[in-house]
Amino acid sequence: MEETCEFRPWEELVPEALGLIFRNLSIQEKLVVIPRVCKSWGSAVTDPLCWQEIDLERCSGLFQQPETLCRMLEMLIPRSSGLLCKFCVYWLPNDQIFSLLSDNAKYLRTLKVPCAKISDSIVKQVAPRLFNLSFLDVSFCKNIGAPALEAIGKNCKHLTVLWRITHIVDFESNSANDEAFAIAATMPKLKQLRIAHRLVSTEAVLKILSSCPELEFLDMRGCWEVNLDQKFFDEFSGGQLKVVGDKQSY
Questions:
Q1: 249 falls in which pLDDT band (50, 70, 90)?
Q2: Alpha helices for 82-201 (secondary structure H)
Q3: Coil/strand/helix, residue 26
Q4: Which phi and psi angles does 242 have, rounded to 5°?
Q5: At what angle do helices 177-186 and 146-155 cross, to 10 degrees?
Q6: Which residues does 125 contact at the CB level (< 8 Å), separation at least 6?
Q7: pLDDT confidence of 143, banded at 50, 70, 90?
Q8: Residue 92 predicted with pLDDT over 60
Q9: Contact between residue 122 and residue 96 where contact means Cβ atoms under 8 Å apart
């Protein structure tokens, strides 16, 4: 007796199952390829489950004009219907888009917006909506400072990773002691901190170390004003803290 095996056509899969599959595809595939396959796939790819992660890092070169990126984000962010978990975009163009993002950030845990053109005022305004953040990258964001970081620290109690790197050419004009003290005062659960090429003092770094007991990794490349050595870090952390710097191999 021959055994028969029945295969269910892909187009007949329930939309929820398709959504879970499509969420792993790239932005380009979800926008261009999937909708052309069939009507059921085109409908399924609009499900918010497909847009829990919006990651444009690898295709940032496609959006040379801020207006183009604005239109793209104004289309993509609402598709998450408030289920957004991860958002990664270079050159976020303005405060308005950041506010739109925060309206859909109830479940947002990873936020990477290097080079974003956002202000202290908008970060302070929307920080209460970012309460689930655990990973934040605001490197090269020239228009924010200690007020923004303080607002993040006070509202994002689950934050364990902060990247606040600046470009080496901006070193002398970016005194960051106020930011360092804001980090120390409001982010006690940090495990990873990157502050490469920031103009911070030894005192400011010591304050971070004493206020963030769970810190496991500290990137201080280019922080030439900090005068701490390998022996100090080993004694302070019992060898549990990995430090990357320039003066010596920590």
A1: very low
A2: 95-102, 120-126, 146-155, 177-186
A3: coil
A4: -95, 125
A5: 10
A6: 99
A7: very high
A8: yes
A9: no
Handedness of CA 25, 156, 167, 216 (dihedral sign): negative
- The backbone region for 156, taken as left when phi is positive above 0, alpha when psi lies in -120 to 50, beta otherwise, is beta
Strand order in the sheet with 217-219: 53-55, 86-88, 110-112, 135-137, 161-163, 192-194, 217-219, 242-244
* pTM given for the model: 0.86
Across the chain, where does the E strand assignment appear?
Answer: 53-55, 86-88, 110-112, 135-137, 161-163, 192-194, 217-219, 242-244
What is the Cα–Cα distance from 182 to 146, expressed in whole angstroms?
Answer: 6
At residue 1, does pLDDT exceed 50?
A: no
Q: What is the CA radius of gyration of the chain?
A: 22
Tokens at 134, concatenated: 């655990």
Cβ atoms < 10 Å from Cβ of 11: 12
For residue 155, pLDDT over 70 is answered with yes
Report the percentage of the chain scoring pLDDT > 90: 56
| C-alpha to C-alpha distance for 104 and 143, rounded to whole angstroms | 23
Using CA atoms, how far apart are residues 199 and 215, in angstroms rounded to an integer?
20
